[in-house]
Amino acid sequence: MEFICASEPSHMGRGTYPRATRLHDGSILGTLTEFHDGENVVVTTKSTDNGNTWVPYGEVTRGFGDVDNPFVLQLPNGEILCTFRNHTTNATGGHIHHRITVCVSADGGRKWKFLSMPDESSNPARGLWEPFLRLAKDGSLQLYYSKELSPSDQDSILQISHDGGKTWDDESAFTGHDMVTRDGMLGLAELNGELVAVFETDEDGIMHIKCVTSPDDGKTWSNRQLVYRAGKWTAAAPQVANIGGVLVVTFQTDEDGEGMGLKCMVGKPGNWVLKVKLGAVGVWSGIMALDDRSALVMFDESGTCKARKITLKR
Known about the structure:
The protein is an all-beta fold and 314 residues long. It has strands spanning 2-5, 10-14, 16-22, 28-36, 39-47, 55-63, 66-74, 80-89, 95-105, 113-121, 128-135, 141-150, 153-161, 172-175, 184-191, 194-201, 208-214, 222-228, 235-243, 246-253, 261-268, 271-279, 283-289, 294-301, 304-313.
């Protein structure tokens, strides 16, 4: 088994934290955070050729605080949701109010309006980070994110909506709640009837990648285990996708001594069989499956968001 990477990545836009989703019409809607004259601007970008080219499309929101970590998902009714961190900062950049916000678009991702605020905190030490949306098998909407309890303690959180993101049930923690660790940067994918969540953690020292599994679509979680450790180096910010029945976990690491670069692990929990270098420079990667043989890996390369197609060759 090997991966073939496209020789040249496509350009999604200037900014950071790129993510994307397949729309019902077959196009791909991307999102990223741009920076303009002191403002953070969450924008959308669109591809109609499977990620080979992108055009600017819409603006979700903008603000002078810490607005970042956008994630997009289309609902069965055609509406598109974008969730992101939406934090108020003081004059020195310190956080004074944290929020996870959800906005909605009814026109394919061009125009947006506020929908809900699933969580917020006025405690500067209790940050809210990296929201991730998925549709559950029962039709409900799941929102995953990271919640800081202290500078040394962060849990993985799940909230559920039964009305398309307008209102949310009480939160539940499913990793980190029984230990003092910084679990974060959640990514999720299904494999063989199980839901797999990958995350970074400092449980045993320096940041590395672990996962947990759920046999019931997120109701219960167990089997906390290692995905990848980079020795004395950092492995962080994972995301995951199912490509033809195997999981591909992207992450950033400085283990090659060249600054942060992108790699991925291929396999399944308990059996990661292949490590692939995706790029010498890159951070905050996202990944989405294109078909049962290929995926689109998105990343920030020195302030430019790019997308590279990778193909699994068996």
